[in-house]
Amino acid sequence: MRVKDLQENEFQYFYKTYLNTLDEQDDLKSALQNGKESFKDLVHGLTDEQFKYSYGEGKWTVAEVLVHLIDTERVFQYRAFRISRNDKTPLPGFDHNIFVEESNANHRTKEDILKEYLFVRNASINLFDRMLDEHLKRTGTASDIPWSVAALGLVISGHQKHHENILNERYF
Question: CA-CA distance, 157 to 28, in Å (whole number)?
Fold first, then answer.
């Protein structure tokens, strides 16, 4: 499934911002794999000062942004899993700001965060790799928004790319 194959009814317009960071020809599996490599490069290139840096009062540190990506991927991964299994139960939203506040990100190491990210991303790759096209096209509701499984997977990748762009523009 590629970005250009998604239909407007598979995600809310707000998430187009994330999808627009990906190439229209990107397929789900390569987007997840490319994101994994990009994240590793980003973390390996960080100095300790950059890792703890925030560009303004009340803004997240780089460490918090990285943990936010992990947390959000877990939530979207779970949503995709449930919907792919044809579970029609509407899934609740989550407050990403509370997740960041409770993450303890600023007391963790780069290596620890990278290790956790790799576990989560490898689980995402494994999850989506085993899905048939019919699973990827299934739709459900999360945060009162209609989603397809494929859109959730692609938004995982686009969300990461979006935040990497912000890090490059405002933090480095």
Answer: 8
